[in-house]
Task: structure prediction
Amino acid sequence: MGKIIPRWEWRTFGEKFGEAEDKIKAHPLGNFKKSDEKYILSAHSNDNTKIRDDLMDIKRLQEVNADTLEQWFPVMKAEFPLSKEKVTELCTEYFKIPVPALTQESYTYEEYLALMGAQPDLRVVDVHKERNIYTINMAIVEIAEASFNGKPTRTICVEHEDPANVMNTVKELGLAGFENINYLRAMKESVGLSY
Result:
């Protein structure tokens, strides 16, 4: 995965963000990305586990600072098909669930999704994202339209390697009054799992 410089993240969810949204949109749009992803949520783990770009992509929360900013770090990117050993590792290390009966040596994307979808303590969530990405104070600032299993939501995010820069940008944009909520928590609340 090469050298990774972890970023600090502040994010919130809601329908409207008032003047903060206008302040962000006053800057030039840097990029627009649209994606469809599948998150696999566990009742026993708060690791960020998703399938994106045909990869099983996992991030783990490393640290939460005094301003409640979160630092997530990639811990796995695995290609399909997944070996029986890799599925075992996913269940024990990341989902924290008993390993189901594995009758195959490897699992395709479709087979893996069917297997995980059958586990009582897991939820597979279809996530659609349309992300408008800006650069403000050298930080990545995003306004995104998203949906969890077809249920629409909106989110704003500020990310940078320097947590002080993140908080300064959050305050400058008028976002400090909103609660910091990560994707995992928002999704779990949407599908009825506790975070």
The domain at 8-191 is CATH 2.40.320.10 (Hypothetical Protein Pfu-838710-001). The chain is about 25% helix and 45% strand. The beta strands are 8-14, 31-42, 48-52, 55-64, 70-79, 82-83, 106-107, 122-136, 139-148, 151-160. The chain has one domain: 8-191.
